[in-house]
Design brief:
Blueprint (H helix, E strand, L loop, with lengths): L1 E3 L2 H12 L4 E3 L6 E5 L3 H11 L8 E3 L3 H5 L6 H10 L4 E6 L16 E5 L4 H10 L3 E2 L14 H8 L5 E4 L10 E4 L5 E5 L5 H8 L3 E2 L23 E5 L1 E2 L3 E5 L7 E2 L3 E2 L8 E3 L6 H16 L5 E5 L6 H12 L5
Parallel strand pairs: 1-8, 2-8, 4-6, 5-9, 10-11, 12-18, 13-15, 14-17, 14-18
Antiparallel strand pairs: 2-3, 3-7, 4-7, 5-6, 9-10, 15-16
Helix pairs in contact: 1-5, 8-9
Bound molecules: threonylcarbamoyladenylate and magnesium ion.
Magnesium ion (MG) binds next to loops.
């Protein structure tokens, strides 16, 4: 059930979480499906609701650096990032502390744990009231498009979550950057709104990142994720018969079979992530546009090329995974 976030409904959500129930809540990146990270039965409900494989670990969300420090060992780099960028859309992978209290199934029994402090007033109030770490994957069925509104959550998990706190559309629109600080070389495991350009000067070292697809030596090695039911066709330079169109930037010269040009298409089959070519705006709108075009009954969704720079790295990472054929 969707309820608008108010002091009363946030308190209700905190009580549900403390009682071992699931609650979906907004963050600045995407909506999360939360459970008390210290309660095994509660965490199991996340895996069951999402249909998520049990070997895929979860991010612990906390309200303060002190809470994060009870879970993991911080090094100098982690301190700098935590002090500068938290609350914010970056998750740190750090060595787990002994007796951290998390249920082993929350972390898939791994020696390293991911933690983040979300920059969203509703998430923050909720975490402060729960007073425990809350694991929260994106609030969608495993493999599907991530939710950036409460309605997106209701559509995929509505019958499985007792409470969905509504707090408007997520402003970042893509999942947090995941930075691995367990090795000497810092490495991005998942690109997001906070990129290498921001991280390198901050910690004074090189940050490594290998885009998805580049290490893949055989098709199928990149797993399907963030996926629409309708197939995606990336780097499209024209629109074929029966296709919908996910545009980015200038579409003046994009031809569309049957109608002439892309701008003459049925508006229900056309979304432009950012007519001005702004990557932040494109990230914010990406998942909502995919949700909408997926319901247009198109044969495929043609996607215009998006530059492989800055936030474009994160957007293209999601699109490449979403384009992996069903199989
Ligand atoms: O923005 C976000 O991070 C959102 C919001 C709700 O906070 N959450 C999110 O969670 O995207 P999820 O579960 O959809 O993605 C978490 C990713 C998964 O790819 C998981 O494999 C990886 O983080 N991960 C979590 N813990 C890990 C660990 N201990 N070692 C390696 N990877 C880990
Ligand atoms: Mg997810």
């Amino acid at each position: 059930m969707i309820k608008q976030a108010t002091p009363a409904t946030i308190a209700e959500a905190a009580a549900l979480l403390r009682a071992g129930e699931l609650v979906a809540f907004p963050t600045e990146t995407v909506y999360g499906l939360g459970a008390d990270a210290t309660n095994r039965a509660a965490v199991e409900k996340i895996y069951a609701a999402k249909g998520r494989p049990g070997h895929n670990p979860l991010i612990a969300h906390v309200a303060s650096v002190e809470q994060a420090e009870a879970l993991v060992h911080f090094d100098a780099r982690a301190w700098t990032i935590a002090e500068t960028l938290w609350p914010g859309p970056i998750t740190l992978l750090l060595p787990a502390k002994q007796n951290n209290g998390l249920s082993p199934i929350a972390t898939a029994g791994l020696p390293n744990i991911t933690v983040r402090i979300p920059a969203h007033p509703i998430a923050m109030q909720l975490l402060q009231m729960v007073e425990k770490p809350v694991v929260a994957p994106s609030a969608n069925l495993s493999g599907g498009i991530s939710p950036t509104t409460a309605n997106h959550v209701a559509r995929s998990l509505g019958d499985k979550v007792p409470l969905i706190l509504a707090g408007g559309a997520s402003t970042v629109g893509l999942e947090s950057t995941i930075l691995d600080l367990t090795q000497q070389q810092a490495a991005i495991l998942r690109p997001g709104a906070i990129g290498i350009d921001e991280l390198e000067p901050l910690i004074g070292e090189v940050v490594y990142y290998t885009p998805s697809g580049e290490t893949v030596t055989a098709p199928g090695q990149l797993s399907r994720h963030y996926a629409t039911e309708t197939p995606l066709r990336l780097n499209a330079v024209d629109i074929k018969e029966g296709e919908a169109f996910l545009a980015f930037g200038n579409t003046a010269f994009i031809g569309a079979a049957g109608v002439g040009f892309a701008h003459d298409m049925d508006p229900g089959r056309f979304r432009n992530l950012s007519p001005e070519g702004d990557l932040h705006q494109a990230a914010t709108h990406l998942y909502a546009a995919l949700h909408e075009l997926d319901q247009a009954g198109a044969k495929a969704i043609a996607v215009q090329r998006i530059p492989e720079t800055g936030l474009g790295l994160a957007i293209n990472d999601r699109l490449r995974r979403a384009a992996v054929p069903k199989g």
